[in-house]
Amino acid sequence: MSQPLDVMVIGGGINGTGIALDAAGRGLDVALCEMNDLGAATSSASSKLIHGGLRYLEQYEFRLVREALAERETLLRAAPHIIWPLRFRLPHQPHLRPAWMIGLGLWLYDHLARRDRLPPSRRVFLNGHGPLQPKLKLAFEYSDAWVDDARLVVLCAMAARERGAHIWPRTRCIQAQRAHGLWQVTLEDASGSRRTVLARVLVNAAGPWASSLFDEVLHTAPPAHLRLVKGSHIVVPRLYDSDDAYILQHRDGRIVFVLPYEQHYSLIGTTDVDYTGDPASVAPAYDEITYLCDVVNEHFRTQISPQQVVHQFAGVRPLMANGDNQAQKASRDYKLLLSADGNEAPLLSVFGGKITTFRALAEDAINQLAAFLPGTGGPWTGQLVLPGGDFNHHAGLQAKLIQEYAWLPLPLARRYVRSYGTLCRQFLQGCQGLEDLGAHLGAGLYSAEVDYLIQQEWARTADDILWRRTKLGLVFNNARQQRLQEYLSSRS
To answer: What angle, rounded to 10 degrees, do the helices at 62-78 and 99-111 form?
Structure first.
């Protein structure tokens, strides 16, 4: 690449891909490198929620909650295939918070930002009905949204590529230094091959590695330090039949979500534990798993134990270090730290943040960098529609697919809509029956879908496909995994 890039982004999580997308849409020449698969770390280990953060109201973070609530509406419009409304129930525990306090908090939650698509909060008298223990008499209902977090990252990267961005997964930045008013960035891919690119601006969006990047790549002291907080989740067989989610208040001040997950499961999390070590090696500890089980057992009729956990995962949240001793009270807000003294090439570092506010963060980042990049276009992502999101409702698109492809089984059509939206037509086009989707690798995964994921969504490994592009890892046994691996090996 002989001509300098406008922007070089390090980090292929949600903030990095969001910044690359925003920049590319403003006419800038952009590249992004990610040392692993896109969204392989924190961005695929969230609680899968687009939410304002009801509990942040108690920490007086009104600006953060207002921004997140506004983004919730924007993202519901942008990606209806992977983001959809979710109704929450908050059981009332009188000894923890009085009902008037919860009611006031939910009134604020309803009114801090414009709410077009979601119904308001309300009280619900349980009267011993439903999945909760009979001792719980009152609950509060409110709305937020679900997101397939890993697919959100990939779709942002695809949208950036459509606008000319270069996306380089499995490519590590091993050195970056300023020279002659530019950044010289040395990259190394999975084969060990190296290349150097030039860029006018460098963006550090390395997530949990944002501080260590200064030591290992930039060879200078970081302008701020992160507090790494581990959040662990477990997946168990479905606890109840309804599509409601639950937010549980625990006596230690933490909250735990119980979410409907992939039709047959419940997702439970999260914990807040300070973490030291390599973020790539994070995993739930046994005491975290028992903690989550205990919280559920205090609230639900159905009791669970660690032996019933079918899947578990943990992520490291890169939060701003603010001196608070309690990890759950560390702010989820973000800071953009700009280094651009004199005629030096600018460096913008992203510290903190949450998945809900990634678009606003990215817009803020490019607004700050526009002063160094003449000709930069104005903000545009407020009206963004991500790839595959050009439809209104799941049911409507599902019905169209069944009409166009009468042979398509309903469970497969449902999964295609929830994962790909209209993108699924790329691998369905021309098919006259299931046999045209190629080899069946198990659990409704056909080789045509795998080929699409390799060609269009940067998938390379079985984990990429089973856990980040889909969630079929929940139903893939060892024999199916081996068959998928053999298929991937045959294509390499």
So the answer is: 60
User: What CATH number should be reported for the domain holding residue 408?
Assistant: 1.10.8.870
CB atoms within 10 A of CB 258: 25
**CA 342 to chain CA centroid, nearest Å:** 37
pTM strictly above 0.90: yes
Strands 30-33, 5-10: pairing is parallel
Q: Which of helix, strand or coil describes residue 375?
A: coil
Residue among 283, 49, 28, 64 nearest 165 (CA): 28
Distance CA 211, CA 216 (A): 9
At 159 the three-state DSSP class reads helix
The domain that contains 284 carries what CATH number? 3.30.9.10
- List the CATH number of the domain containing 343: 3.50.50.60
- Whether 110 and 217 map to the same domain: the answer is no
Residue 399, number of CB atoms within 10 A of its CB: 13
pLDDT digits (tens, 9 = 90+) for 18-63: 999 999 999 999 999 999 999 999 999 999 999 998 888 888 889 9
Do 214 and 122 have their domain in common?
A: no
- Which domain covers residue 460, as residue numbers? 394-491
Q: Is 166 a domain residue?
A: yes
SS3 260: strand
